[in-house]
C-alpha cells in the first residue's frame, strides 16, 4: 500500500513537470519554430527585438493600419473674396438720367435679375454682353462692370452683392453643436474658423478626430494635433466636407496582463508602455517582464527586404521591461490599431507550481513511510 501511494505521488509530480495549468504561454512557446518533416525548423512570422539600436527603424516603417490618414498642411492665401463658378451676382445700377437706358422716368436705380456665374466663369449683362468675372474680387468686378455701363449710361454707378454658391461653401457634417453648410468668408477661411462657427467640438466625443473629405480622398488628424500646431490649420476649399468623430482605433490584450480585453486608444500616439498602463499593467505573480510581445499584421505590399519596411507580414515585437533600455524603448515604440499586446507567463510560475506538487509528493511519501 505504501508503495502504491509513493508511486501515485511520483506520477503526479512527473505529470506536473509536463503540464502545469497556466493562463498564458511562455515566451519560448509563443515564439517557437515549427519542425518540418525533414527536421528543419521554420516560422511563419518575424521576431523583432525593441531596443534603442533598432527603434528608429521600426518607427520609420509604413503604418500597418490601412485607415491611416494623412493631413494637408496650411498654405496661406490672400485674405480676400473672389468670384467662383456657381456664385450669384446681384447688380444694382444707379443713374441720374431722367430717361435712361435702364431706368424709367423718375427712377434712380434698377436691380438686375440675379446672375449666376456660368461654368466658364462669365455672366451676361444687358446692353453690355458677356463678361468674365471668375477669379476677380467683388470690388474689381464692380469697377469693370461700371466701366462697361458708362459707355451706354454716362452717369451709371454700380453696386455688387456677391452670394456664394455651393462651390464657395463647405459642409460641417457632425461632431459639433451646429452642423450645416457654411459659406467661405474669404480665400483664407480655415478649418478651425469653421469649427468655431459650428459651435466647437462636442464635449461628448472621446479623443476627437477631425476628418476632411476633399476630391474623393479623406484626410485626418486628431483635434489635439490640430490645435497644437498652427501649420495644421489648413485652408478650406469650396466643396470640402468636414466631420469630427471619436477615435475608433483599438488594441487587444491577452495573457498574464492586468486585463484581457479590447481597449480604445487614449491618445493620438500610444506607446507600448502607455498601453501596458491602459490594460492595468502585468500580473505580479504570473507575468514574465522579459516577455512582453506585440503581434502585428502588415499588408503584404509593405513587406520589403531592405529594412525600409517589415520583412514579414506577421511580425512579433519583443520587449524586455527588466532593463532600462527596454523601458525607454517601450516608451517610444508606438502601438497601431489592431495590435495584440501579449504578456507571456513567467517560468517561475511553473516552477512554483512544481515545487508545490513536489511538496505534496513528499508529504505523501512521509505518510506512506509511516
Overview of this structure, please?
With 370 residues, this protein is an alpha+beta fold. It has 4 domains: 2-21 and 353-369; 27-65 and 249-346, Outer membrane lipoprotein wza domain like (Outer membrane lipoprotein wza fold like), CATH 3.10.560; 88-163, wza like fold, CATH 3.30.1950.10; 167-246, Outer membrane lipoprotein wza domain like (Outer membrane lipoprotein wza fold like, Roll). It contains 9 helices and 19 strands. The protein has a 6-stranded mixed beta sheet, covered by helices on one side. Strands 11-10-14-12-13 form a 5-stranded mixed beta sheet. Strands 4, 5, 6 and 9 form a 4-stranded antiparallel beta sheet that branches. A hairpin with a 5-residue loop joins strand 1 (34-35) and strand 2. It starts with a helix and ends with a helix. The model is unreliable at 10-18 and 350-358 (pLDDT under 50).
So what's the overall shape? elongated
Name the helix and strand elements from N-terminus to C-terminus, one letter apiece: HHEEEHEEEEEHEEEHEEHEEEHEEHEH
The pLDDT mean sits at: 85
Number of helices: 9
Query: Largest sheet, described in full?
Result: 6 strands, mixed
Which spans of ≥5 residues are poorly predicted at pLDDT below 50? 10-18, 350-358
Question: How would you describe this structure in keywords?
Answer:
wza like fold, five-stranded mixed sheet, 370 residues, Outer membrane lipoprotein wza fold like, 9 helices, 26% strand, alpha+beta
In short:
The protein is α+β, with helices and mostly antiparallel strands and 370 residues long.
